[in-house]
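so my prof wants the structure for this chain in the tokens format not the other one, which i didnt know existed until like an hour ago. anyway here's the sequence
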Amino acid sequence: MQQDILINWSPQETRVAVVENNAVQELHVERTLERGRVSNVYLGKVVRVLPGMQSAFIDIGLERAAFLHVADVWHRQPDGEPPLIARNAQPLVPIERQVFEGQALMVQVIKDPIGSKGARLSTQISIAGRLLVFLPQDDHVGVSQKIPSTQRDALRARLHALVGESGGGFILRTNGEDASDAELAEDIAYLRKTWARIKAASLQLPPPSLLHQDLNLLQRVLR
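here's what i got, hopefully its the right format
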């Protein structure tokens, strides 16, 4: 299957099309003045906790307060599983016992603001590199589901050996399938250094503050 990436750039707008067999499969548009905030990491401030909705509103410095649901509050789970939810669909730990008004909280945008709704947040941080995704709060080492299952165990073992005992979880991206150990080690070092900068900024800056801005559309395509 032939795949091409077509890029049209101007100071005002970037457009990227993914073409397979002469048919457009994906089209992405990013305007310079309306750049998305998904994957940005902020030090926010809890402005309101709503037990009835099991959610909280967080000031991250945007026009509208952002939204954090209890399902998006990270908890360490085996194998990187999502937070546990009780059988009656209520959280095992209510949000009012996890966050409080006035609290400074590191969060990541998982959905851009739209209309009258603010951005949606998660407290689980993930940082994308060229070959890997880093989960600094987790210990899970995984491989993209798009990589053939017959190759995943061997790739996971290689990644485990490279990650070592320094902590943090990693997921091998699809384009890392054929990467060398040296290339993977370089990406691991870059991602850990990025996380160290984010943590240092969170200790120095007051909420609300931007701690990490994801790459723009053109940079993400070329990554």
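also thought this was worth mentioning. Confidence is low (pLDDT under 50) at residues 82-89.
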